[in-house]
Amino acid sequence: MTSVLQPQREAPNGTYTFSSRPRPVPSRLKYREPTMMQNEGQVVYGNIMYDRRVVRGNTYAHQILPVALNFDLILILELYLEELTDHIEDVNVECQTDAFLDKPATPLFIPAKSGKDVATQIEEGELFHFDMEVQPVLEVLVGKTIEQALLEVMEEEELARLRAQQHAFQELRNAELVEVQRLEEQERRRREEKNRRIKQQRAVLEKEKETAEKIAARAFARHYLADLLPSVFTTLRDHGYFYDPVQRDIETGFLPWLMEEVSNALDKRHAALAVLDSEYICNFLFHINCGSSFR
Amino acid sequence: MEGTRISERLPPRAEPTHATVAFGDRALPRLSAELQHVELRVRQGALAALGERVHDAERAYEAIRAGILERLKLLLKDEEGSVRTRTAEVLYLLATHSVGREAMLRTHVVPTLSGLLDEPVHACRKNIHQTLKMLAEFPAGVSCVVASGLVPRLLMRVPEEQEDVRALVLSTLSSCMREDALPALANGGVAVLKEQLSHTYPDIRRAATSATLAISVPVEGKRRLCEEDVLPILVGLLSDHDLAVSANAAGAIMNTAVITKGKVQALETGVIQPLLCLLGRGHTAACANALRALTCLAEVPSARQQLLPHLPLLESLLRHPAPIIQRASSTAIQVVSWTP
């Protein structure tokens, strides 16, 4: 380590000079850097906290100071050899209190008595008499509760009574209704039955009457028609419905034809006569006669 | 509660959701103003408080005089489902008092209620039907309900509703039919009732049988019942566990047996034996209805023959404490022992 000796400077006012100026201890870098090699003149200041030369720990302990051997001496120092370690021997001194012993109870601190003693006490019946005082309170409480409960019960009761009354009324009403309806129905049925029977009876009577009339009519008709047949025949015969077919045929067929022919013949003769009688023919015949007479 | 100092805070409220009710005369005007408040919680609180108050008949009367019904009618059309449900509940509570019922008829609440029959919220519909049922249980109310033409719509709702609401609708319908059965008949009431007669719930059966009883009073109803073969179901119901159901079924049979067709059909389904069993079961209405049914059936000679051996039973009923049964049994004996 090069050290730079500080030039001795004369004190300006001669108060104080250092023979050796205090200077920070230069330290050696652990890892020398190449740049550092160049400027060897620069002093590297280190942190004394990380300086190995500074003694750590208790300075009252034994210290191992490095001994500088400058000359050849045979010294038998094995006896005095001590191991160099970082570990600093120290002496342990301990102190430990004993386990707690049971502490007796602290006596009560009773301060010394001073002044006069005065006491007061309220006896049983002096302030109030509980049973008497509590009564109005209780009355109100219980009374209100019961009143409310009674009200509610009364409501229900009233409604139940009303319903029961209604129910009874409904029963009666139902009874009456059904009776009325049943009797009505019965009446109706009976009336209808009666009507039906009357109608039936009437129908029977009608039929009887009709039958009687029929019988009467038949008897009368039979009687009336008893001599129907002969009279019919007579009438028919009178009217000429029974005829001899040949005679009829002659009468209807032959005789008219005959008459027709006769009439035709007569007509022809009549026509001829008429022709002869006519003027023209007379003239013609006269002429013919004259003519013939001329020939 | 350990210290002796009185706390600055107010005491704990029994119902945090209810609105605070003002004292005395101020209570109702304030509640009725709160009912129209914009905020939902205020309205709900006011409705809850009103519902509490209205249980008492006097408070109900005061509330009605303060014109609460108009506000409630408006609230029925609110968008919020819980508000509508609460309103319907308050209306139901009002309808349990007779002042309330009269006031509801005066202010025409029934048309507003009938507009809500298709309400999506189930609880609201239930309350509405409860209110309608309560209104239909007294004469003026029934005429109002029938006049508003609710019967066909209620008939349509019967198959669609759930069980508990269905029983309520059927009860309303039976009250309406007792008043006037013709609208129900015209809208196919018999078919609807026929389905409900064989339901498992006794409430529904009870209501359905009483409706059948009411519908069988007019002649048209009797004829329809015979045509649609309801009589076998009714004969089956005569041996039901619930005595009210059997009583109503016997009543329906008794009404139907007045016409000849009914008699014939009933006898075909073998109705006499169950009716005789019903006589012994101790329920006054059931007994009376059974006796009257037997009376109607005894018009037929074959039934008379079957019943002649049971005359001693009928005679024992002459000594029954209820006068209604005595009368019924005497007519029955008369008819059974009649000879042409």
TrEMBL record, chain A:
Q: Where is this region: Disordered?
A: 1-24
Q: Give coiled-coil spans as residue ranges.
A: 177-218
Keywords (alphabetical) are: Cell projection, Cilium, Coiled coil, Cytoplasm, Cytoskeleton, Flagellum, Phosphoprotein
Record keyword Protein biosynthesis present: no
Q: Which top-level group of life is the source organism from?
A: Eukaryota
Q: Among the entry's GO cellular component annotations, what is one?
A: cilium
InterPro entries registered for this protein in UniProt: Radial_spoke_3
Q: Does the keyword Phosphoprotein apply?
A: yes
Provide the protein's localization: Cytoplasm, Cytoskeleton, Flagellum axoneme
Q: Which Pfam families match?
A: Radial_spoke_3
Which PANTHER family does the UniProt record give? FLAGELLAR RADIAL SPOKE PROTEIN 3, RADIAL SPOKE HEAD PROTEIN 3 HOMOLOG
Family per UniProt? Belongs to the flagellar radial spoke RSP3 family.
UniProt protein name: Radial spoke head 3
From TrEMBL, chain B:
Q: Which residues form the signal peptide?
A: none
Q: Which InterPro entries match?
A: ARM-like, ARM-type_fold, Armadillo, RSP14
PANTHER family on file: RADIAL SPOKE HEAD 14 HOMOLOG (PTHR15599:SF1), RTDR1 (PTHR15599)
Tell me what this protein is called: Radial spoke head 14 homolog
Q: Which organism is it from?
A: Electrophorus voltai
The taxonomy runs: Eukaryota, Metazoa, Chordata, Craniata, Vertebrata
